[in-house]
Design a protein that fits this description.
There is one protein chain. With 142 residues, the protein is an alpha/beta fold. It has a domain of 95 residues. The chain contains 3 helices and 5 strands; from the N terminus they run E-H-E-E-E-H-E-H.
Length: 142
Amino acid sequence: MARSSGKDHSAGNPDGRSLRQGAGGGGSVADISEGDLRAGLRGGGRITGVIVVARPVDAAIEYTPYLLLSWHRGYHRIARWRGGERRWREFDRVLRLLRELGWADAVPVYDATDPKLLRVRAIARLMGVPPVLRRKREPQDG
């Protein structure tokens, strides 16, 4: 018999499904299907941030958007229906999808090797690279 932790994992989740730490919590990256993403948005959720990573593949560039969602913690990639991340070879299609989903702000695109991208710990871990820590600012004399 399975034991319940007694915690309500659906709090803040507009579609009422369970949220677990392994599913995007704690600074990780999780996959979300486009259908679940659209259902969450219809249920009152919103996209709160977007980062697009560009990777060279053969003679082309593939783009993967990472989304911050109001009803989940951490970054989420849009998953293919068979599993794995969904990638686009044309950036305008990524932008069109983000606009359809309600994202109207700027869309930063980072090369997969950009050191600034590695400051986003969850994405750096996903790429198998240790995250770059920000340097502490020196106190200014004055």
